[in-house]
Structure formats: C-alpha cells, structure tokens
C-alpha cells in the first residue's frame, strides 16, 4: 500500500486515510487499485497511473489496474476499504476467500426434508445459472441491468454499458457474479 506524492514517489503506508487531496496505490496481487481523492492533482493522478503501469509490466501474471474516484468506490474495493482505513495488521492481511457455490450441501439438506431458506434458494439459482456457461461479460451485463433496475427502475443503454464496464473491472469471480445475479433477482421478486 502506497501514498503517491506530488512528484510521483511512492511512500509505503500501513493505513489509508482517504483524504480528498491524496492518491493511493493498493496492490492486491491480481489488481492494482488507484484511489483518487476528489481534490487530488492531475499531476499526482498521472504519476500514479504511470507507476501502476510500471508495476504491471514487471509482473509475471496478469494484473488489472482499477481506477477508483472518491465516493464512487465499488466492487471488491468496497470489501477491503474498511481494512485499509484500520490499517494492515497480521490479523487482517489474509486475502478474502473466493465464493464457491455449495450446491451439493444444499441439495443434501433439501433431500433430508428441510425446506430451502433464502440462502438455499440463492444457492440453487446461482448454481443453475453457472451451469448455463454464459460468458463473463454477459453475466456482468445481466448484473448491471439488475443493479440499475433495483436502484432506479429503468436505465439507458449508456448507463447499462457503464455499469457493465464497472462490474467487469471489479475482481469478482464467475461464481460471485452468478451469486449476485441470483440474489438480486430474488430480492427484486420479493420487492415487487
């Protein structure tokens, strides 16, 4: 984790204060997050992008660069934001486990005569969706449409495209997208 100075130098830090004048570079191995404060200078932002590109070029494995503006945080960054505020300690530096759909256990419970609860319904729906082998991009678009529908009703094609791109840039796994689609679909049905 680094704070980017006005001259482009990276200063190693243990905690992110999310000050509106600052730029932070957070290295999550698969993703390099660039967080831009609302009042951060263009010069500082450009330096941080160049530094991230350099780090990316030196890696053996593919790395995404995700640019995040203050008060527009999304995706997997939201999952680590509180940890970044508190600071890295031995207790919280483990990577979050990736979601795995536990379909078999849910089926066992249903076969044992237990009625499926909300989580079990989502598990069944997300497993069914994952078996259809939709492309990652198609799942991202489906999730974008559902999120926008939940938040504002109808959305324009441009809004859907922008939200889809935002979801693609997040580091969500295929199973996580299936789970989120299934969950939001169930919530929308209950809401209506």
The portion of residues forming beta strands comes to 5-15%
Rg from Cα? 19 Å
Strand order of the largest sheet: 2-1-3-4-5
Helix/strand class? alpha+beta
Summarize the topology.
Blueprint: E1 2-4, E2 10-12, E3 23-27, E4 31-36, H1 42-57, E5 64-69, H2 75-86, H3 103-111, H4 118-130, H5 136-152, H6 157-169, H7 174-191
Parallel strand pairs: 4-5
Antiparallel strand pairs: 1-2, 1-3, 3-4
Helix pairs in contact: 4-7, 5-6, 5-7
How would you characterize the overall build of this protein?
- Helix content is 51%, strand content 12%.
- It has a five-stranded mixed β-sheet, covered by helices on one side.
- The mean pLDDT is 85.
- The longest helix has 18 residues.
- A hairpin with a 3-residue loop joins strand 3 and strand 4.
- It contains seven helices and five strands.
- It starts with a strand and ends with a helix.
List the keywords.
192 residues, Severin, 12% strand, alpha+beta, 2 domains, single chain, 5-stranded mixed sheet
Question: Quick gist of this model?
Answer:
The chain has 192 residues and is of the alpha+beta class. The chain contains 7 helices and 5 strands, in the order ββββαβαααααα. Strand 1 and strand 2 form a beta hairpin.
């Amino acid at each position: 984790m680094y704070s980017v100075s006005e001259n482009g130098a990276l200063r190693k830090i243990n905690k992110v204060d999310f000050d509106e004048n600052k730029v932070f570079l957070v290295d999550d191995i698969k993703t390099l997050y660039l967080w831009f404060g609302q009042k951060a200078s263009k010069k500082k932002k450009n330096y941080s992008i160049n530094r991230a590109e350099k780090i990316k070029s030196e890696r053996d494995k593919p790395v995404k660069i995700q640019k995040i503006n203050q008060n527009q945080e999304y995706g997997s960054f939201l999952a680590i934001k509180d940890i970044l505020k508190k600071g890295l300690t031995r207790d919280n530096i483990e990577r979050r486990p990736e979601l795995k759909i536990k379909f078999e256990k849910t089926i066992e419970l249903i076969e044992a005569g237990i009625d499926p609860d909300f989580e079990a319904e989502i598990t069944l729906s997300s497993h069914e969706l994952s078996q259809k082998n939709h492309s990652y991009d198609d799942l991202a678009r489906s999730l974008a449409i559902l999120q926008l529908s939940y938040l504002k009703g109808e959305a324009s094609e441009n809004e859907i495209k922008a939200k889809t791109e935002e979801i693609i840039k997040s580091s969500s796994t295929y199973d996580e997208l299936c789970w989120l689609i299934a969950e939001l679909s169930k919530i929308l049905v209950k809401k209506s």
